[in-house]
Amino acid sequence: MNLLTVLATKGSSASSAGSLVTMIVLYAAIIGVFWFFAIRPQRKQQKQHDAMLTTLEVGDSILTTSGFFGVVIDITDEIVVVEFGNNKNCRIPMKKDNIVEIDKQGNEE
Fold first, then answer.
1. Which pTM was predicted?
2. Residues 6+ apart with CB under 8 A from 63
3. Which pLDDT band holds residue 54 (cuts at 50, 70, 90)?
4. Residues 19, 20, 26, 27: is their CA dihedral positive or negative?
5. What is the mean pLDDT of residues 31-55?
6. 87 backbone dihedrals φ, ψ, rounded to 5°
7. Is there a contact between 91 and 79 (Cβ–Cβ < 8 Å)?
8. Lowest mean pLDDT: which of 13-17, 46-50, 52-56, 70-74?
9. Residue 94: which of 72, 76, 79 has the closest Cα?
10. What pLDDT is attached to residue 109?
11. In this predicted structure, what is the pLDDT of residue 15?
12. Average pLDDT, stretch 25-54?
């Protein structure tokens, strides 16, 4: 038994440095794949959404995250006042981040 423990400790000390490097490389590869498939596309989509919001103007028709269509009445830094439906009294302030789609055809009428 003593010989087996000596042989096991000799083999494990030499291979523990190799297994440590292998483990670090494996974790780096997993993080790289996660970055490529999850974080990078999300940032690209966020940049496209921010670019879309910079084109927002008063009078544009919009679609919100909750599925409501409305017309932009007023714009501030983070808040947009949107008029929903034909009722002129239904004006609701909402955050710009909740806008999913902008339809510029509302200005051509």
1. 0.66
2. 69, 99, 100, 101, 103
3. very high
4. positive
5. 92
6. -75, 115
7. no
8. 13-17
9. 79
10. 47
11. 63
12. 92
Distance of CA 21 to the CA centre of its chain: 32
What's the token pair of residue 16? 């523990």
* SS3 track for the chain: CHHHHHHHHHHHHHHHHHHHHHHHHHHHHHHHHHHHHHHHHHHHHHHHHHHHHHCCCCCCEEEECCCCEEEEEEECCCEEEEEECCCCCCEEEEEHHHEEEEEHHHHCC
Question: Two tokens at 97?
Answer: 């981040």
Q: How confident is the model at residue 20 (pLDDT cuts 50, 70, 90)?
A: confident
* Residue that the structure tokens 């989509």 belong to: 45
Structure tokens at 2: 């003593």
Q: From CA 41, how far away is CA 47, in angstroms rounded?
A: 10
Dist. CA 10–CA 76, nearest whole Å? 70
